[in-house]
Amino acid sequence: MASSDPEKLMSKADKLTKLSFTRWSADWKTATALFEQAGWMRKDNEKAKEAFEKASKGQEMISSPWDAAKHMESAGALAKDLNRWSEVSDHYRRASELYMECGRSQPASDALAKEDVQPDEAIRLYNDACGILEEDGKEQMAFDLYQAVTSIYIKLEKYIDAATSLLRWGVAADACNAVHSQCKVLSTASSLNGLLNPLRVVQTSI
Q1: Highest mean pLDDT: which of 91-95, 100-104, 186-190?
Q2: Is 187 helix (H, G, I), strand (E, B) or coil?
Q3: Which pLDDT tens digit goes with each residue over 12-49?
Q4: Final residue of a domain: which of 85, 117, 149?
Q5: Which residues form a coiled coil (predicted)?
Q6: Considering the entire predicted model, what is its pTM?
Q7: In terms of Cα–Cα distance, which of 101, 86, 187, 185 is closest to 142?
Q8: Is the same domain home to 4 and 95?
Q9: pLDDT (average), residues 170-196
Q10: Looking at the domain assignment, is residue 131 inside a domain?
Q11: Domain of 68: which CATH number?
């Protein structure tokens, strides 16, 4: 009968990954299943995060990057609940890399876009996510990301960066023949640039 104690499951799983005089090879397949089970059963976010991190490693060890990415995203979500912002970024970035190993650019970009708490870090991840889709020729899937990063730039009053982001969006729209979107985006960029010109004049005169 399977144990209902997540701590016992973790202990058993850890033992299966370690070599000994009686165990000459690690049983990652069995250990990973136990880590996963413990992750869903643990009520403490810190301990659940640890379980999913180990489950992710286990899936990598048995050559299953898709499932490894899923578990890393779960760990990232728990890190966010724990306010571990550096870990949030690291986990979602690793999840994105694992999705890319599967040749899945859309979930890879989605993983990067999930870290939306710290503005500067969110900008970097959104831009990286856009880059992944651009390289894969899926620019239209990045439209929401372009909009998100532009909005953050405007909130931070980084208007030149916002205009640059809009121009990048316009180029992407052109690449996928989204004429209506391209015209709308470039019009917004033009309006933003018009607002910037008086600011440049003031800055020059100071």
Answers
A1: 91-95
A2: helix
A3: 999 999 987 777 789 999 999 999 999 999 999 999 99
A4: 117
A5: none
A6: 0.67
A7: 185
A8: yes
A9: 78
A10: no
A11: 1.25.40.10
Can you count the helices (H) and strands (E) in the chain?
A: 10, 0
State how far the alpha carbon of 8 is from the alpha carbons of 5, 11, 19, 40, in Å.
5, 5, 19, 14
At a CB cut-off of 8 Å and minimum separation 6, what does 41 contact? Answer: 4, 6, 9
Domain that holds residue 200: 136-206
Q: Do 92 and 140 fall within a single domain?
A: no
CA distance 81 to 146: 26
Token code pair at residue 116: 């939306």
Six token digits for residue 53: 């991190």
- Tokens 């990415």 appear where? 69
**Contact partners, residue 13, CB within 8 Å, separation at least 6:** 30, 31, 32, 34, 35, 38, 54
Domain assignment present for 123: no
Domain shared by 159 and 108, yes or no: no
pLDDT of residue 206: 36
**Domain annotation covers residue 127:** no
Q: What is the DSSP string of 11-22?
A: HHHHHHTS--SS
**In the prediction, which pLDDT does 188 show?**
79
Same domain, 105 and 162: no
φ/ψ of residue 116, rounded to 5: -125, 30
